[in-house]
């Protein structure tokens, strides 16, 4: 996956952002490393976590599966990293910042994935009548390199019958959008 994680230098741009004081209070109330704090505010699902040297903040609309995250330096509470996830897969531009808020580097997490997650959302909506961007937690989407073929792929799992433990597994070529494989499985 080296090519899609290519680092490039960018023009000087400053983005100074500190962690919200109310969020910081919530994190300090828990006072436990890696303990998640989750709540909904104004139809936005928020997750906070003390990660030792940093604070983690993630936000997503309750009705969506795309989340934005920010990592703050614990010493000065300033943003040092930011990015976007679709389920557990990084998408879009990942950024690192210095202590002045200047963007040090950007990594395009979509490089090589010609068939984007937005294309994937539309395709699965049309072919399987499932909206992958609805905020439901009964599914997963991963993307990466297929072990057998070496192709970039999107892998989707979703429940088709919760009571029976049935789920659908779909593998899609991340360049062409072609369905490479599809099967129904049952959880034991």
List its traits:
mainly beta; 2 helices; single chain; Nuclear Transport Factor 2, Chain: A; eight-stranded antiparallel β-sheet; four-stranded antiparallel β-sheet; 46% strand; 12 strands; 2 domains; 12% helix; disordered N terminus; 188 residues
Total of helices? 2
Regions with little confidence, pLDDT below 50 for 5+ residues: 1-10
Helix content: 10-25%
Q: Strand percentage, roughly?
A: over 45%
What's the gyration radius in Å? 19 Å
What order do the strands of the largest sheet run in, or round the barrel if closed? 1-8-7-6-5-4-3-2
Order of helices and strands: EHEEEEEEEHEEEE
Number of strands: 12
Overall shape: it is globular
Count of structural domains: 2
Arithmetic mean pLDDT: 89
Major β-sheet annotation: 8 strands, antiparallel
Counting helices, strands and paired strands, the structural category is mainly beta
State the separation between the terminal residues, measured CA to CA: 33 Å
